[in-house]
Specification:
This protein has four helices and eight strands, in the order ααβαβββββββα.
C-alpha cells in the first residue's frame, strides 16, 4: 500500500506530450480555390463567334498570371466544348484566339469590434484577440482580355471579369458564413458527379 501511494504521488507530477510535424504549402488552399473559382466565373461569361467545326489556334504568348496552367486548361476546355478543332499551327487556323490576363489576385478585409491582439512588451508573444463581433471577407478577382482574329482581321475583343467571395462573421462564439463561393462550387460539382453516377 505504501508503494501504491508513492507511485500515485509521483504520477501526479509527471507530464507527457505528443507532437506531430506540421508543414504548410507556400499558398493556402483557400487562396488557390478563390482564384480558380474566379477564373471559372470569368470563363462562364465568354461569348465567342460560332466555333463549331472551325480550326482554332490558341495564343497564350501574352498570358502572364498566377496559375497559368489552370487558365490554359480551363480555356482549352471551353473551346473544345464549342466543338472547335484546336490546332498547333496558326497559319492553318480559321480563328486565332489570344488570351491575356489583366489581373488575378486576392483581396482580404476584416472588421473587428472588440480588442485586437496586442504584443506583450519584451516578448515575442501577444495577448489574444477578444472579438465581440468580427467580419472577414476574402475575394478572388480575375480579369481577362480575349481577342479573336481571322485572316489577320479583328473579329472580336472583350474583357471578362470573375469574382469569387468567401465571407465569415463571428459574434462571440458563434460563426456564420453569409457567402462562400468555394463551398457552393464544390457542392455543385459533387451534385453533377452524383447525377452522372446514378
Amino acid at each position: 500500500m505504501k508503494y501504491v501511494r508513492e507511485t500515485i504521488f509521483l504520477l501526479l507530477f509527471l507530464t507527457g506530450c505528443t507532437s506531430r510535424t506540421v508543414s504548410n504549402t507556400p499558398r493556402t488552399a483557400i487562396e488557390q480555390l478563390l482564384l480558380s473559382t474566379a477564373i471559372d466565373k470569368a470563363f462562364d461569361k465568354i461569348r465567342l463567334p460560332e466555333l463549331s467545326d472551325k480550326k482554332v489556334y490558341l495564343d497564350f504568348s501574352n498570358l502572364q498570371s498566377y496559375d497559368p496552367e489552370y487558365v490554359k486548361s480551363a480555356f482549352k476546355t471551353y473551346v473544345a466544348q464549342s466543338r472547335a478543332t484546336i490546332i498547333e499551327k496558326p497559319d492553318e487556323a480559321d480563328y486565332i484566339i489570344e488570351i491575356s490576363c489583366g489581373g488575378l489576385g486576392n483581396e482580404y478585409k476584416d472588421t473587428l469590434v472588440g480588442i485586437p491582439a496586442l504584443p506583450v512588451p519584451g516578448s515575442p508573444m501577444s495577448f489574444p484577440e477578444l472579438a465581440l463581433w468580427k467580419s472577414v471577407e476574402q475575394d478572388g478577382i480575375a480579369k481577362f482580355l480575349i481577342t479573336v482574329c481571322s485572316n489577320g482581321k479583328l473579329v472580336s475583343k472583350r474583357h471578362y471579369y470573375g469574382k469569387a467571395e468567401r465571407d465569415e462573421t463571428f459574434f462571440l462564439w458563434m460563426r456564420s458564413q453569409p457567402k462562400d463561393d468555394i463551398r457552393k462550387a464544390w457542392e455543385e460539382a459533387d451534385s453533377v458527379i452524383e447525377k452522372q453516377n446514378d
